[in-house]
Design brief:
About 75% of the residues lie in helices and about 0% in strands. It has helices at about 1-10, 15-25, 35-55, 60-65, 75-85, 85-95, 110-120, 120-130, 135-145, 150-165, 170-190, 195, 200-220, 230-235, 240-245, 250-260, 265-295, 295-300. The protein contains 18 helices and no strands. The chain is globular, with a radius of gyration of 21 Å. The protein is mainly alpha-helical.
């Protein structure tokens, strides 16, 4: 229940918000298709190369445990790599390992963003010729071809490119109303099955993304600068690095804390609460050291972010 509450309330909005912000930033200032191609070229460095490296690095910890520590991993990647054809290994690493996600499952929406960027010239003309109707067209494609999972992200990508900069004019009373409805739906979702809530999922997320974006505008002054909060300023420099490499380390840290405390319900609850903070501190420290003493390597790993 603790895990459901901590990850089930606001978390469903995180990935759609990521795609929406990505779409807004991508098409911002893209007055002609030439600028779209320039942005595509930049994404090779900032998205594609970091994704490839992180996806290849993901199996290394389990393989290290098997070969060096002689500790059987939950998933024997070395055996899988030896048994599979090379092309199938590449598919598992970068695209789909049979679960609709690559082995590095947390990178699935980065994979989808890369695919969406490849379609960005088409989206540029769709936005220009169809306007807001392009959102409906992408939604229709997703409804008819749900097996093309990147279309889910594409819907939020296109929607964000149109809507996010318009939300500043949303009245406060509507913002609080939308936030209240979103939270009510989120709490309701915690106590019923997915089959019951699935038809309302998109509405819930749309309310949440809109309300949270507008709430940020209301609470944070336009004059705010990240540098004014030193701890936050430092931590935010390593968020992409943290995202890329927090798995499978997070699973190992969570399991280690739980085992150390006795593998009971209390231990599991404590591990869920402490593991993200502990691992974030460790990875940020690693990122800090790498950025200072191995700057070029760190820049390649994070795309210069």
């Amino acid at each position: 229940m603790v895990q459901k509450i901590t990850t089930g309330l606001l978390a469903p909005c995180a990935v759609p918000m990521f795609f929406a912000i990505s779409g807004y930033l991508f098409f911002f200032g893209a007055s002609h298709v030439g600028k779209v191609f320039i942005k595509m070229k930049k994404r090779i460095k900032t998205l594609f190369i970091p994704f490839v490296i992180a996806a290849m690095a993901y199996p290394l910890l389990p393989i290290f445990k098997e070969l060096v520590l002689h500790h059987p991993a939950e998933k024997q990647y070395l055996l899988l790599i030896q048994q599979q054809e090379f092309t199938n290994t590449l598919k598992c690493l970068f695209f789909d390992s049979g679960t609709t996600m690559p082995w590095a499952y947390h990178l699935w929406f980065l994979r989808d963003l890369i695919i969406i960027v490849l379609f960005s010239p088409v989206l540029f003309y769709a936005r220009r010729w169809l306007g807001y109707w392009s959102i409906a067209v992408v939604a229709a494609f997703y409804l008819f071809f749900p097996q093309l999972h990147f279309l889910y992200g594409m819907f939020w990508f296109v929607a964000g490119s149109f809507v996010l900069d318009k939300l500043g004019s949303l009245p406060q009373r509507f913002t609080f109303l939308m936030l209240s409805i979103f939270l009510a739906m989120a709490f309701w979702r915690l106590f019923v099955t997915d089959e019951v809530t699935e038809p309302f999922k998109t509405v819930e997320i749309a309310l949440g993304v809109t309300a949270l974006w507008r709430l940020y505008d209301m609470l944070v002054s336009s004059s705010f600068r990240l540098e004014s909060v030193p701890v936050l300023h430092v931590a935010c420099q390593y968020t992409f690095f943290l995202y890329l490499y927090h798995e499978p380390s997070l699973h190992a840290v969570t399991k280690g804390i739980s085992s150390a405390l006795g593998n009971n319900e209390f231990a599991y609850t404590v591990s869920i609460m402490l593991s993200p903070l502990l691992l974030s501190t460790i990875i940020i420290a690693i990122g800090f050291v790498m950025k200072k003493y191995m700057h070029k390597v760190y820049a390649i790993l994070t795309g210069g972010r």
